[in-house]
Backbone:
């Protein structure tokens, strides 16, 4: 049994805590927030993420969607997930609270919320835990799952400077029921619309100067911002510590797989907990196609002259479109 400290109780941290506790490890899970709390996110969970939640035994109310509908210059092109798989539109407010509750139910997990992690502590040339609210929390292994703006990654000197000027605005709006995530490729930004329970939809505008178009009406709550949209880490593990989820580097959310990748990475971490280098190799292999797809989609949105023919090809090749959505959806 290893004593493990996890900083950050988002999807990555909670899923790791549950997976590790079920393998017999003793886990402390720290978060600065008190839950339920909001998180700026497109709120579309891809099919492999839905399956990962199922493996954790977690059920969250959501709106199933069968794929993505792209709107461009008056055309609508539909891509369904392969094998009739379904994604789920979910409020992060509820998903993250359900994950934390599930972690709390594990007898080997101690959850501490409302505590700010300030940085790592060191002993014998290894990372030996974290300092949080002026107190030292020691553990054999520290997992930094503290999100895209990870303070632990920063304090360890593992930040790689972000290369994107893109940011996002997101808000909840009233909306009709829908079975698709709708994506409006409105040069120079993309607008994502995810169906949510309770007659709501999440509208996210992504770009260098995003704005939520007035056609969506008045938001239910104030619109939030999110930046940067892609971060990288120079290093992802060292003796006594590993980065997990967005803290380890993330892709632009244009392909909408961040929560899914966080849940799947947490499963890999639990499998490889005794060999962090093997964990890192397995995660990089899992993410390779997803990263290529995201880079490809971003290039298309940057060059509208390429986007038009690409959408025409996809509209004539539903099988290819479906396979690409499968990659975005978390299929290997
Ligand atoms: C605009 C946008 C749209 C997105 N759309 C989607 C989408 O539709 N589908 C999808 O799957 N993904 C989407 N994502 C990505 C998704 O939100 C992330 O990939 C996912 O939240 C990563 O989970 P995580 O657990 O690694 O980090 P987070 O969810 O960020 O959790 C990190 C946790 O760490 C805590 N924390 C941070 N700092 C500290 C500290 N110093 N001390 C203690 N606790 C701390 C935070 O309170 C938080 O609870 C989107 C992201 C953005 C920005």
Residues:
């Amino acid at each position: 049994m290893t004593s493990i400290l996890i900083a950050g109780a988002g999807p990555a941290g909670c899923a790791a805590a549950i997976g590790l506790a079920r393998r017999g490890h003793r886990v402390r899970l720290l978060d600065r927030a008190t839950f339920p709390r909001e998180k700026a996110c497109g709120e579309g969970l891809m099919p492999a993420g839905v399956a990962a939640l199922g493996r954790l035994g977690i059920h969250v109310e959501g709106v199933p969607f069968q794929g993505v509908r792209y709107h461009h210059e008056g055309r609508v092109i539909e891509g369904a997930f392969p094998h009739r798989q379904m994604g789920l539109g979910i409020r992060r407010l509820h998903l993250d609270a359900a994950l934390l509750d599930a972690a709390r139910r594990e007898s080997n997990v101690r959850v501490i919320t409302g505590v700010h992690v300030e940085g790592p502590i060191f002993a014998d040339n290894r990372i030996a835990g974290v300092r949080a609210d002026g107190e030292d929390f020691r553990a054999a292994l520290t997992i930094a799952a503290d999100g895209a703006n990870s303070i632990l990654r920063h304090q360890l000197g593992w930040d790689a400077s972000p290369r994107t000027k893109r940011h996002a605005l997101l808000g909840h709006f009233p909306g009709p029921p829908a079975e698709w995530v709708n994506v409006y490729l409105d040069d120079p930004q993309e607008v994502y619309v995810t169906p949510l329970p309770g007659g709501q939809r999440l509208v996210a505008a992504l770009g260098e100067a995003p704005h939520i178009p007035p056609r969506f009406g008045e938001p239910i709550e104030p619109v939030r911002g999110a930046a940067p949209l892609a971060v990288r880490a120079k290093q992802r593990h060292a003796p006594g510590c590993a980065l997990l989820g967005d803290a380890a580097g993330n892709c632009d959310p244009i392909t909408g797989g961040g929560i899914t990748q966080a849940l799947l990475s947490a499963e890999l971490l639990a499998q490889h907990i005794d060999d962090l280098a093997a964990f890192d190799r397995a995660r990089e292999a899992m993410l390779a196609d997803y990263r290529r797809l995201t880079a490809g989609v971003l290039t298309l949105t940057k060059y509208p002259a390429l986007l038009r023919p690409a959408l025409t090809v996809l509209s004539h090749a539903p099988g290819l479109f479906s396979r690409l959505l499968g990659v975005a959806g978390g299929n290997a």
About this structure: The chain has a mean pLDDT of 94. The first helix runs from residue 11 to 22.
